[in-house]
Amino acid sequence: MRRILSGILVFVCFITLHTSAAETPGPLKSFKPGELWPDTDGVHINAHGGGILVHENTYYWFGEHKTEGRRGNNAWVGVRCYSSKDLYNWKNEGVALSVVKDDPSHDITAGSIIERPKVIYNAKTGKFVMWFHLELRGKGYTAARAGVAVADKVTGPYQYLYSLRPNAGVWPENATEEDKQRGKENFLARDFKGGQMSRDMTLFVDDDGKAYHIYSAEENYTLNISLLTDDYLKPAGKYVRVFPRGHMEAPTIFKHNGLYYFIGSECTGWNPNPAHSAVAKSIWGPWKELGNPCQGKKAETTFDSQSTYVLPLMNKPDCFIFMADRWRPQNAIDGRYVWLPIEFEDNRPILRWRDEWDLSVFDSKP
Ligand code: GAL
Predict the structure, then answer these.
(1) Residue 270 near ligand 1, beta carbon < 6 Å
(2) If we measure between CA atoms, which residue out of 127, 125, 146, 126 comes closest to residue 135?
(3) Quick one: pLDDT at residue 9?
(4) 48 by DSSP, 3-state: which?
(5) Residue extents of the structural domains in the chain
(6) Which terminus of the chain, N or C, has less C-beta within 10 A?
(7) Which of 134, 56, 58 is nearest to 91 (CA)?
(8) Which of 171, 188, 180, 202 is CA-nearest to residue 283?
(9) Is the C-alpha dihedral spanning 319, 313, 61, 258 positive or negative?
(10) Which DSSP state fits 44?
(11) CB-ligand 1 contact for 49 (6 Å cutoff)
(12) Do residues 64 and 115 make contact, with C-beta atoms less than 8 angstroms apart?
């Protein structure tokens, strides 16, 4: 009897150990674009339309926090932050910027729209500066403003400063006399006084420390590249229009071999469309279009995703990850992330689908 009992005990221990080992997956070692991506607590990462800041040897991912069961993009929580050393395993660092719950008239009241947050670090002021696309509660997408928040600590809390329409009363550097004439469909001239519309956006910091705000303006017909003040808190009053009437959004900018590259999308709301790419010798242009960087099956829908950021890797010069969102507007929290390595062929960025990949793909770079 005793032998039978101890046999059962050994068997139970074996099963228990075996099951718990199977239930506690080890750290992630690869990217699986489009699949659920558990954070270090096992919860799908909630940082949509995001961007990444590299600070003190750590990656910080900021993105839109979506709420279970809610459709669309209204913000009920705010901007969430995650940290990682290896890019596969992300620790939830909590809410970096909170919506305001007790003041319905506040710009970032619960139910406003907070999209595409990006954070940069200003070495001169020692502040972390967040910019995001803001739409006021109950006003659809008509406000088209940029929101600004700052923090002393990378993970926050970020303090909301204000929102603005960039470059009020300033003509773009490359505006022609015709561009300045008011006409029925001339949105540039229409918005000259009050500031240009600012919807999908990103930030880019150049090697010389100058930072730029890149945003869809003019009813999304044109992108603006706009220099920020030295403290990164306001437009400096110098900007250019790029791809006029090009109808592009979801902008990303990165620098490779001394050239500036752009990848963005067309404007079809939540539905994916073909990506666009472009190159320029100066951030001010002229920008030369390079076509759709995606190749292979589903290239015409950017592999069912929309760009949000291009991440230059730490300690791996000239290696970049294309970050995109596979939106699920019916249950936004279930939105997926599509990350792919950027390859270069004849100085053109190229994206190819991979079911699973890891950072070793960059080791074979010439
Ligand atoms: C997309 C945009 C998203 C969100 C969405 C709303 O075009 O890139 O950030 O604004 O439209 O329909």
Answers:
(1) yes
(2) 146
(3) 43
(4) strand
(5) 40-164
(6) C
(7) 58
(8) 202
(9) negative
(10) B
(11) yes
(12) yes
The alpha carbon torsion through 175, 177, 178, 183 (nearest 10 deg) reads: 90
> Got the DSSP string for 271-333?
S----EEEEESSTTS--EEEE--EESTTGGGTTT-EEEEEEEPTTSTT-EEEEEEE--GGGGG
115 close to ligand 1 (CB < 6 Angstrom): yes
Atom of ligand 1 at shortest distance to CA of 306? 8
Separation CA 110–CA 113 (nearest Å): 9
Task: Please tell me the pTM assigned to this model.
Answer: 0.93
Residue of 217, 163, 200 lying closest to 327 (CA atoms): 200
Nearest CA among 96, 102, 100 for reference residue 131:
96
3-class secondary structure, 13: helix
- Count other C-beta atoms under 10 Å from residue 298's C-beta: 12
Atom of ligand 1 nearest to the CA of 265: 8
Contact 52, 117 (CB under 8 A): no
How many other CB atoms sit within 10 Å of the CB of residue 132? Answer: 30
Please determine, for residue 6, whether its predicted confidence score (pLDDT) is greater than 80.
no
- Beta carbons of 117 and 130 less than 8 angstroms apart: yes
Single out the residue of 285, 344, 354, 339 nearest to residue 308, CA to CA. 339
Token look-up 């001169």 returns: 124
Structure tokens at 247: 């109808």
pLDDT in tens, 286-324: 999 999 999 999 999 999 999 999 999 999 999 999 999
The answer, yes or no, to whether the previous bond of 38 is cis (omega within 30 of 0) is no
Measured in Å, residue 269 CA sits from the centre of ligand 1 at 5
Instruction: Please determine, for residue 5, whether its predicted confidence score (pLDDT) is greater than 80.
Output: no
Question: Token digits for 90?
Answer: 């992300």
